[in-house]
Design a protein that fits this description.
The chain has a single domain, classed as Rossmann fold (3-Layer(aba) Sandwich), CATH 3.40.50.2300. Helix content is about 45%, strand content about 20%. It contains 5 helices and 5 strands, in the order βαβαβαβαβα. The two termini are about 10 Å apart.
Length: about 120
């Protein structure tokens, strides 16, 4: 079973997407801010990370940079998920090291297809 870490500060959004991922056969861990997300990425070593961008303590841009800078986590695919839909924010997320950028509300089928594409390469 593939492990997905979902880093999202909004509890309802976090719970709904985590449940959808579990129903689709993923083992899911959650974190409520970027700092906790980095710590869980280090300790749990997920197969893929879903990262919100606008969060307290450490935003998603910074969390992505930290994850990309460490040997144990640099290889983990990261999909940024954000309400920020502008090209500027997408470019900033990709420049930080995200593999993909999705705008909220997320199209679940498209997200699952994208996750599957990254995980089948493992």
């Amino acid at each position: 079973m593939s492990k997905v870490l979902y880093v999202e500060d909004h509890p309802a959004q976090r719970d709904i997407l985590a449940q959808m991922l579990e129903l689709n056969g993923f083992e899911v861990a959650v974190a409520s801010d970027g700092l906790e997300g980095v710590e869980k990425a280090r300790s749990w070593l997920p197969d893929l990370i879903l990262m919100d961008l606008r969060m307290p303590k450490m935003d998603g841009f910074e969390a992505i940079k930290v994850i990309r800078s460490e040997d144990n986590t640099t290889h983990i695919p990261i999909i940024a998920i954000s309400a920020w839909a502008s090209a500027k924010h997408k470019e900033r997320a990709l420049a930080a090291g995200a593999n993909e950028h999705f705008t909220k509300p997320v199209d679940l089928n498209r997200l699952l297809t994208t996750i599957g594409r990254y995980l089948k390469d493992d």
